[in-house]
């Protein structure tokens, strides 16, 4: 099989409900015209009507435009001789913080309803160029700045496994849409775990690529602080690793208008090799629950069965990386976002964001500049680790899925939460890629692990995820 090509299962072996199909299969069969894009769109609309009124993941949609786009996609297959894109006719959701032409990029903030995008963001433009059809916008917390998804405009997004636990954030709506069958793939963003954590608590895969891999330019946000430029990444959420790969390839093709985009190859000669994997099961200052240790053990055994050599390694300090992230991002928040937080007059968001800010160092120039310098030194240590172990296996989070509002208890509670989320935040602080992979459930709730790779080795990460999928298949929420 050629690199990047996906196997396609015959129609007869697939479940009858089109909304359960992988994006890879949908795209292949639409292209073959064994199913139509219109049929797929209607199937997803039916599923959305069934579950979204309760879950509230998709909060903005234009059904007429979606049907028209599906009809055009089908017509193009009969009228055009040019090859169609890899996601031709496949519905995909877009997070509320990415620009979609003619729609408001509210990011969950009432005052931002006036921020109507004149053009698609670059990642949305790439997805459209690949043939994807936007089938709705997914919910976020205000400013995409919380591990819980609810806001004053659209309300709360529920986790399909349990109403009692968080749906994650900030890509909570995206993860819930994928987990519950309202979309095969979803767009998300991640500056502190905002793709990986929702994927973790909803039992799906979520890929944070290396920052710069996928263009992030948004016309409604003309200037971004250094932390957003260095730490934030755009990426996909899906139910299979092959769908992540298909969507990543579509997202990353062109970003020349974005000065942060890096035109570097996706594919490397050793992507399919079973490389050494460093196992990180000791996190500074944190006692890992036995269920999370069990999840790591399941994943390690799956990788070893596929030929990977998994060895325990000592990781450079995640707590140092967390402190650097706080020093940089919270300083920037105090200079920019905090005034809008206070003006919003939303007690929940304000309490959570101010509690996190209280854990950060004093916001002065020396602290900020020193943090940037220390970050460079810490990245060198991590890079030395990747020379020996191109992949790392670690917890996605050091605690089981949180209950709603676990972040509203003040500074002490937030400090413990930040320590527990240090595997998420440290990866972002060091501008690395990370990938949540489900490894089953415990007591009816999802378990997952995180694969972290050397910079720009997303395909190597996805191959390891596929090995875990094969040995440790996970149950779907709708099975």
TrEMBL record:
<dbReference type="Pfam" id="PF01425">
    <property type="entry name" value="Amidase"/>
</dbReference>
<dbReference type="InterPro" id="IPR052739">
    <property type="entry name" value="FAAH2"/>
</dbReference>
<feature type="domain" description="Amidase">
    <location>
        <begin position="39"/>
        <end position="460"/>
    </location>
</feature>
<dbReference type="InterPro" id="IPR020556">
    <property type="entry name" value="Amidase_CS"/>
</dbReference>
<protein>
    <submittedName>
        <fullName>Amidase</fullName>
    </submittedName>
</protein>
<dbReference type="InterPro" id="IPR023631">
    <property type="entry name" value="Amidase_dom"/>
</dbReference>
<dbReference type="InterPro" id="IPR036928">
    <property type="entry name" value="AS_sf"/>
</dbReference>
């Amino acid at each position: 099989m050629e690199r990047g090509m996906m196997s396609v299962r015959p129609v007869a072996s697939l479940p009858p409900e089109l909304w359960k199909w992988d994006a890879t299969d949908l795209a292949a069969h639409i292209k073959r015209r064994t199913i139509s894009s219109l049929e797929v769109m209607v199937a997803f609309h039916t599923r959305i009507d069934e579950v979204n009124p309760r879950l509230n993941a998709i909060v903005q949609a234009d059904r007429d435009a979606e049907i028209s786009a599906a009809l055009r996609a089908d017509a193009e297959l009969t009228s055009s001789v040019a090859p169609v894109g890899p996601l031709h006719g496949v519905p995909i959701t877009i997070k509320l913080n990415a620009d979609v032409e003619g729609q408001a990029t509210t990011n969950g903030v009432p005052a931002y309803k006036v921020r109507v995008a004149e053009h698609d963001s670059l990642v949305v433009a790439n997805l459209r160029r690949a043939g994807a059809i936007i089938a709705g916008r997914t919910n976020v917390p205000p400013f995409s700045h919380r591990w819980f998804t609810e806001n004053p405009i659209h309300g709360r997004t529920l986790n399909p496994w349990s109403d009692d636990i968080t749906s994650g954030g900030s890509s909570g709506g995206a993860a819930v849409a994928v987990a519950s069958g309202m979309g095969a793939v979803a767009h998300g963003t991640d500056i502190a775990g905002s793709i990986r954590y929702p994927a973790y608590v909803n039992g799906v895969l979520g890929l944070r690529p290396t920052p710069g891999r996928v263009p992030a330019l948004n016309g409604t946000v003309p200037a971004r602080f250094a932390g957003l430029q260095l730490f934030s990444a755009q990426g996909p959420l899906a139910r299979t690793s092959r769908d992540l790969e298909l969507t990543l390839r579509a997202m990353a093709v062109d970003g020349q208008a974005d000065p942060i985009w890096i035109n570097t190859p996706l594919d490397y000669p050793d992507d399919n090799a079973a490389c050494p994997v460093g196992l990180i099961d000791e996190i500074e200052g944190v006692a890992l629950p036995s269920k999370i240790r069990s999840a790591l053990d399941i994943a390690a055994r799956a990788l070893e069965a596929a030929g990977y050599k998994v060895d325990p390694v000592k990781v450079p300090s995640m707590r140092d990386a967390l402190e650097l992230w706080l020093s940089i991002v919270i300083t920037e928040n105090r200079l920019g976002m905090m005034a809008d937080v206070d003006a919003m007059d939303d007690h929940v968001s304000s309490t959570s964001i101010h509690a996190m800010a209280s854990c950060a160092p004093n916001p002065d120039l020396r602290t900020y500049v020193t943090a940037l310098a220390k970050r460079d030194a810490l990245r060198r240590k991590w890079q030395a680790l990747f020379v020996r172990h191109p992949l790392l296996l670690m917890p996605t989070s050091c605690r089981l899925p949180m209950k709603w509002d676990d972040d509203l208890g003040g500074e002490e509670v937030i400090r413990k939460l930040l320590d527990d989320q240090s595997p998420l935040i440290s990866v972002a602080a060091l501008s690395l890629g990370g990938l949540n992979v489900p490894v089953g459930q415990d007591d009816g709730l999802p378990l997952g692990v995180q694969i972290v790779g050397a910079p720009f080795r997303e395909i190597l990460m996805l191959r390891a995820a596929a090995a875990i999928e094969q040995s440790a298949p996970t149950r779907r929420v709708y099975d």
